[in-house]
């Protein structure tokens, strides 16, 4: 068994949750430049335009990396614990989703963890361009936190999170929501206004 370096990034800023904005394209370009020196061999992304375009821009800086799309890396609710076990704000948040949305996400989240969250056969460096919820789900899993803890773990657009999975030791959260590659005016997009710094 060998180390797995899993790089996770939320897509760039988008226009009404659709295509990337000019800001989002610039964020993606800077993320790609930051990752250019890393031996990333695969870029996985979800099917929505904002994730696909971010992956396309970032991949230009990663020669030889295979770009793959799958629903596994899409925008979905990874877990929906019983409302009576949640703080009122989190329960109210989940009330904004349909039953179908709340039940379709957990199998995808479990499959994403099974595919990526553990040591590899050979040292592996892979990037997942996804959405806020799935990055939070991987972080929650790496820390061994309760399933509901993915809520409230927010990521900025094109912020970088890196998890190292090594044989026989717990995962290491190396970076979380790191925006050091973004200038101040491009940071904190993707956060509710109350959380922006």
From TrEMBL:
UniProt superkingdom: Bacteria
GO MF term list: hydrolase activity
EC numbers for this chain: 3.1.3.-
Keywords: Hydrolase
Top enzyme category: hydrolase
Pfam families attached to this UniProt entry: His_Phos_1
Protein name: Histidine phosphatase family protein
Organism annotation: Nonomuraea salmonea
């Amino acid at each position: 068994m060998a180390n797995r370096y899993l790089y996770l990034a939320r897509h760039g800023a988008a226009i009404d949750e659709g295509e990337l904005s000019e800001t989002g394209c610039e964020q993606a370009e800077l993320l790609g430049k930051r990752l250019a020196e890393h031996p990333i061999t695969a870029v996985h992304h979800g099917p929505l335009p904002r994730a696909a375009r971010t992956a396309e821009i970032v991949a230009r800086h990663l020669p030889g990396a295979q770009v793959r799309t799958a629903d596994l890396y899409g925008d979905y609710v990874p877990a929906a614990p019983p409302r009576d076990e949640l703080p009122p704000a989190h329960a109210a948040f989940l009330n904004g989703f349909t039953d179908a949305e709340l039940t379709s996400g957990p199998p995808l989240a479990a499959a994403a963890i099974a595919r990526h969250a553990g040591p590899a056969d050979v040292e592996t460096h892979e990037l997942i361009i996804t959405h806020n919820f799935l990055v939070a789900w991987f972080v929650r899993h790496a820390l061994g936190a309760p399933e509901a803890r993915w809520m409230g773990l927010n990521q900025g657009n094109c912020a970088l999170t890196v998890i190292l999975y090594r044989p026989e030791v717990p995962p290491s959260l190396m970076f979380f929501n790191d925006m050091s590659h973004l200038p101040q005016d491009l940071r904190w997009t993707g956060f509710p206004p109350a959380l922006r710094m």
